[in-house]
What does this fold into?
Amino acid sequence: MATSTILAEKVAIRPNKNNADYERKEFPSGVHSDGNALGYLVLAKQFRYQNIERFFRATSTALKLADQHHTYNSAANARDIFGFASADQYFIFKRDNAFRVTAFAKNTNGRPQDLPGIAFDRDDLPSFAIDGNDAIMATLGSVIRVSPQGELTSDSSGRPRARLIDTGADDQYVGYFTNDAIIPATRDPFLSSLAQRVDGSGKYLAHVTVLPNRKLAVVSFLNNLPATDSGALSYRHEIQSNNEVVSIDCGKSQNFTFSIQRLSSRRSTWVKSFSTSGATDTVLFLHGGPYRHEEPTTSTALRYFLAHGLNVNVIEFGGQNYTLETAQLLSSGGYGSLNADARDVEAYSRAFLNPARTHLYATSFGAHLFTRLSPGFVNGFRSLVLDLPSGTIAPDLNNDTPTISAMNRQIMGDEIIIGNLDNAYFAALKDCPISRRAMIIYNDEDDRVFPEADYATCAGSDGVEFIEDVVGHNTSPLQAGFDSQVFEHYARILKFMRR
It folds into this structure.
């Protein structure tokens, strides 16, 4: 009789303060609520009880690995051990304080396999499924297949940010979805029909749950974005049973359309286009980071612009954690990666945007991409907004805690973190590089960016305004949510754009 995996539970790996050992504890439903957890294992329950000894042996192996990996830098380097364990196999992924990830699997005979370039997203914890003898791990917006020997391939290579299709209590791998498509892992007719119905719909796909054996699926789309701090996101849920579909709108009807395309056929960089009905102007959004991605569910700026009648094109450039491939571009390519992205942004904009109706908005790390755009290009837009722009690299960036420094080097690479070219660029500025109507926002208490000093040559220039704001990197986070000061921040920017 074949072994069947029917239910998976998450078990936290967390310090036991009483005996300095580690304990198994049922992981809470709110994964992010357990701040002391070093990570979690997905433990599969089996019908075959005679395998229970091997099941706990695998679990014990995972906990021993945890015991060997004491992590005290919990603020920046928590949740470092993830994996799947069953009666027949286990896959365990462990990150060290240098932010390197190593895999342990049953068939590696206890020898670790280095996984170069793999990292864990602190805001989007890994999820797992099993496909035959392979483990499937979704992390950093990519779906990674791990063989029993620890070999890696990407199932989602060349696609936008991906997440596993939820199969409820089962850990079966049936495929993954992006925000604009469903990609089945099998030729199942039900999954294929579901994918065809979603493809090209112009909707923002938020979640997919499928019970393939019962021909049942729930597909959820983000439907409406709030215009005020008292509003709420609303969703449309489409429930499909066999060939019948029932739709439930929770809140207001859809007020934007959505699409994704690659910024370049050669690189895993992306432009996400959000369009609102009746909009005449577009925001070209170079967001901060690195190791971020902008989504309407979490980005106050994106929601605010869309809800107030602007189209928004978000650029996911090298170094952002939109996908694993995107994240690796900056650390491996350095300034060459930013230069390539700048050329691709210019080519895309010239092909698809009307500069007379487009506002270039660059915030924080996005300003590093801004400085690599040609002056003729940036000065052709209707307006420019540099919102707490990064420029000269802060001298203490290389003297932070060892864990933070290791994380920065994994994300940016040595060339960017040292910042020689950035620092030299601003030191050599003799004239203001901006000849278009522009707003430069600064905060005197911000110790990460220095817009007043970097763009000192623009002081007094016609059309260039320096605005001090209470929002800053170390005062009120740019993505702090619906906070009155943050809304005032974006209201001021919107008013400037619409002059």
User: Anything to note?
Assistant: The longest helix spans residues 335-352. The mean pLDDT is 79.
